[in-house]
Amino acid sequence: MVQRILADVWRREAPHVLGALLRRYGDLGDCEDAAQEAAEAATSQWPIGGVPDNPRAWLIRVASRRLIDRARADSARARREALDLARRPDDGGVAPGADEVPATEVDDTLRLLFLCCHPALSRPSQVALSLRAVAGLSVEQIAAAYLVPVRTMTQRLSRARTTLRGAGARFAMPPDEELAARVAAVLDVCHLVFTEGYTRTSGETLVDVELAEEAIRLTRQVHVALPDHDEVTGGLALMLLTHARLPARTDSAGDLVPLAEQDRSRWRRDLIAEGVALLEQILPRGHVGRYQIQAAIAAVHAEASTYQATDWMQISVLYDMLSRVAPAPSVTLNHAVAVAMAHGATVGLALLDPLLTDPAMRRHHRVYAVRAHLLELNGDVEAAAEHYRRAAQLTTSLPEQRYLNRRLRQLGRRWT
Amino acid sequence: MKYVILIHSNPQPWGHPTGDYLAAYQELPDDVRKRLDAEFEQVMSELQANGELIGGEALGDPAAARLYRWEDGSPLASDGPYSEAKEHLAGFFLIDVENQARAEEVAAKFAGPGETVELRPTMWPGGDDQ
């Protein structure tokens, strides 16, 4: 029971404990280690002495002491830093008192995310570090979530911390001229974590953390810190509207159910309502970025009673906007589907032609999967079969491969 | 994204690193061989440091293999090698990298004269519902 409370407290307090330490002592790796040791101390002491009234202050105090101890044991340079640290008042007061509005809380989380999503790091490192430092997940949990050994994840994290140290990255708000790009990176990392969680079908692996929910939790925190940032709001809306489909996207055998065949009565109306409400706040303001447009598309899907009843005209207009704001092969693919549904398969197929000569997409399974669908719609069974076969060869997703092979089989049955 | 890098080779006699037992590799000028070795060392430590290397093994002589074939409703064991093919699986590495381009860059560094390096994506238990 105490273990459970401890885990919850830790997940909630991790970014604030780290924030308090980082403000006084700059190195992320050292601060993370100290915070981890404080969490371990809590594990052994709280079950006996009870959870302290102010767990955050307790954790910060213990972690600070560890940092000072370690610095004293370290080199002369570190010793000077320790003296500097010791000279400052031992402010358990870094943690807010009961009457204090924790204005620094949201900033702590945001600053920590900016640090973890520093441009010197690769995307996978940004993701891993954010889950560790901001979401407070253990290395074991992150490794399990990304299906890699703990050792590999440990290497990734320590490499990332070394890179941050080398880049002189600091726990601070980025300068104004960098802010837009840095927020975009944070949002991309949150969305990447979400996608990793959402696209995973259950049953094959046992993971005790829900990455999609972690991503939503992180994005909510960014949204609280930056309530007027429309793309952040759009990103949150997109995740909520997509996550709403989760109960319907796998069947009882754990196989993938495509959007067209999902039982829409199982979609989570609460998440849809929240996502739509967020969108209604921001869309009238006019300056729409890619997350807002994608969220708008998800909302149109969410509001349709069936796949056929979807407002494909509106969706194709939105994809047209998206292909101008954030052109990408995946956007072209979805645009083609929407156009095919709105104006006929032939028009959709024509949109795909440029992708066939794009070297990056020539071996991408979705080009063939989408073409197969449209060819099938057009009644060109032979070409559709050929494309399903090619798509099934190229995909690396087990459930998608099963789905594509099933479509191929069904086609064969009708064909012969 | 996870990939396996499969080294198909036929060192004579069977041994590791395979290049030490491949005529085509040994015939290379000294400086070229040294450069290839250094590049390989470099990419291995890079993979390790980045947390991109998940694991790998060097495999024993194909003659040491045991083969199991189904016959009359039960497995029938025999001695290797599996085939009379020119090359055998000599070793493998499992990597987890950001994208296909990085996987290709890494795999190319594993190539050497006298053997074939195969890069294959692994399947993952997820997918898109669009």
Automatic annotation (TrEMBL), chain A:
The UniProt keyword set, sorted, is: Sigma factor, Transcription, Transcription regulation
One GO molecular function term of this record is: sigma factor activity
Q: Which residues form the DUF6596 domain?
A: 182-281
* Pfam families according to UniProt: DUF6596 (PF20239), Sigma70_r2 (PF04542), Sigma70_r4_2 (PF08281)
Q: Which GO terms describe its biological process?
A: DNA-templated transcription initiation
| Record InterPro entries | DUF6596, RNA_pol_sigma70_r2, RNA_pol_sigma70_r4_t2, RNA_pol_sigma_r2, RNA_pol_sigma_r3/r4-like, WH-like_DNA-bd_sf
| Residue ranges constituting the RNA polymerase sigma factor 70 region 4 type domain according to the UniProt record | 113-164
Q: Which residues form the RNA polymerase sigma-70 region domain?
A: 11-74
- Give the family per the record: Belongs to the sigma-70 factor family. ECF subfamily.
Q: What is this protein called?
A: RNA polymerase ECF family sigma subunit
TrEMBL record, chain B:
Family stated for the protein in its record: Belongs to the YciI family.
Q: Where is the YCII-related domain?
A: 1-109
Origin organism of this chain? Answer: Nonomuraea fuscirosea
Coiled coil regions, renumbered to chain: none
Q: Which InterPro entries match?
A: Dimeric_a/b-barrel, YCII
What protein name applies here?
YCII-related domain-containing protein
Q: Which Gene3D superfamilies match?
A: Dimeric alpha+beta barrel
**SUPFAM superfamilies recorded:** Dimeric alpha+beta barrel
